[in-house]
């Protein structure tokens, strides 16, 4: 019943690049930030539905595979689901098309309730007005003993980390300097005090840092 | 004739912790930031004049030893020398006592010239009103074919990096989150484009990242 967070960061700690637009919801730098992750065999199969069998199989892929293992429910912020980009569209169903790469229930934290959304592959979005603690209790109920992921975005993850609710934080640091966007660490002074921190370098140059309780 | 920079950073890119005071010129977090570096055999011998032979001898010590190898001159900002903490003290001779751990000429960039300072071990501080390019030309003349270090502080290093004057940047990232202080990367967007970036994890948990041309 671990509560887990996995994020891609730039070397300067940017978790959400600048200048998101409806057409380019993660900002122009997103592609470079997640390129090593997107190149893995696991992500190509699981997220991009690429059946070619291609993709990297090293350290990055090991983390990508672990990302999809053992999660029973997820919590995400309204912005990550897309409610800030499309606030007035009652038909918005998320960024992921009709086969979202989850397969489990997802709680979307919002300020205004909406009816839940169901997909054929077991993904179910439920919209919730709740504190982090309240959302976590509900997610743990839905996860049936499996792990809960806090998926993002930046402010949602930061709130859960600051509240001490996260058991394991894994950041995949791409060695690029973005200098523009939302930084993860600003409200997390001395986060390391509650965790054991370990690191590993992937073949791609990505630095994987794990905070584990 | 490489132009080199070596810095200690927190995981969130803080190079100069908050709240410096004359009594604690590097801020209260400095000790934690540089603890793995200060624990090396090389730094204990070279900086602290510890003759016990104790100290770590792993990856951190290899970088510490390289730090002292092959440098013929150094450039530093006025703040790093201490002129901001003691602006009106004509007798101020730097933080390092009568045996500064340099042994070569150092150019201190300032807005007001002062007479040079000489020490018995070959360290000589010269105060210079100059652009980064001008200071570098003078330092290369003094270095006699050896490398030039840009020592610090944050704004001096950032100016040299932004001007494209640095051949090798090595950052030793201590896996702690400070969240307060001066960040290195803010003016260095896409710095990686001019360099090959490689990384290595030390036994201490420090992440050594090197940008090399």
Secondary-structure map:
The structure is a homodimer of 213-residue chains.
Chain A: E1 3-10, E2 14-17, H1 30-38, H2 41-46, H3 59-68, E3 71-77, H4 78-81, E4 105-109, E5 117-118, E6 124-128, H5 132-143, E7 147-152, H6 154-162, E8 168-174, E9 181-183, E10 196-201, E11 207-212
Parallel strand pairs in A: 1-7, 1-8, 3-4, 3-7, 4-6
Antiparallel strand pairs in A: 2-9, 5-6, 8-11, 10-11
Poorly predicted regions of chain A: none
CATH topology of chain A: Dihydrofolate Reductase, subunit A
> Helical proportion of chain A?
10-25%
Q: Work out the oligomeric state of the chains in this entry.
A: homodimer
**CATH architecture of chain A, please?**
3-Layer(aba) Sandwich
Major sheet of chain A: order of its strands?
5-6-4-3-7-1-8-11-10
Shape of chain A: globular
Briefly characterize the structure.
Two copies of one chain form a homodimer. The first copy, chain A, has six helices and eleven strands.
Question: Could you walk me through the main structural features you see in this protein, from its secondary elements to its overall organization?
Answer:
The structure is a homodimer of 213-residue chains. With 213 residues, the first copy, chain A, is an alpha/beta fold. The first copy, chain A, has a single domain (3-20, 28-212), classed as Dihydrofolate Reductase, subunit A, CATH 3.40.430. Chain A has six helices and eleven strands. A nine-stranded mixed beta sheet of chain A has the order 5-6-4-3-7-1-8-11-10, sandwiched between helices. Chain A has a two-stranded antiparallel sheet with strand order 2-9. The longest helix of chain A has 12 residues, at 132-143. Chain A is globular and about 45 Å long. The first copy, chain A, starts with a strand and ends with a strand. Chains A, B: Residues 2-187 form the Bacterial bifunctional deaminase-reductase C-terminal domain. Chains A, B: This is Dihydrofolate reductase. Chains A, B: Pfam families: RibD_C.
């Amino acid at each position: 019943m671990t509560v887990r967070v996995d994020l891609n960061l730039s070397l300067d700690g940017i978790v959400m690049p600048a200048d998101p637009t409806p057409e380019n919801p993660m900002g122009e730098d997103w592609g470079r930030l997640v390129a090593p992750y997107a190149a893995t065999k696991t992500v190509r199969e699981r997220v991009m539905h690429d059946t070619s069998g291609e993709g990297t199989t090293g350290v990055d892929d090991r983390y990508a595979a672990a990302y999809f293992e053992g999660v029973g429910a997820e919590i995400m912020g309204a912005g990550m689901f897309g409610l800030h980009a499309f606030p007035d569209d009652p038909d918005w169903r998320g960024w992921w098309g009709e086969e979202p790469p989850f397969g489990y229930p997802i709680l979307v934290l919002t300020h205004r309730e909406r009816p839940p959304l169901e997909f054929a592959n077991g993904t179910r979005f439920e919209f919730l007005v709740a504190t982090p603690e309240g959302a976590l209790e509900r997610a743990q109920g839905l996860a049936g003993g499996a792990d809960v992921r806090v998926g993002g975005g930046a402010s949602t993850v930061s709130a859960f980390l600051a509240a001490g609710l996260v058991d394991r934080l894994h950041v995949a640091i791409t060695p690029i300097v973005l200098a523009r966007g939302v930084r993860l660490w600003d409200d997390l002074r001395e986060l390391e005090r509650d965790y054991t921190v370990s690191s590993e370098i992937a073949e791609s140059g990505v630095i994987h840092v794990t905070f584990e309780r």
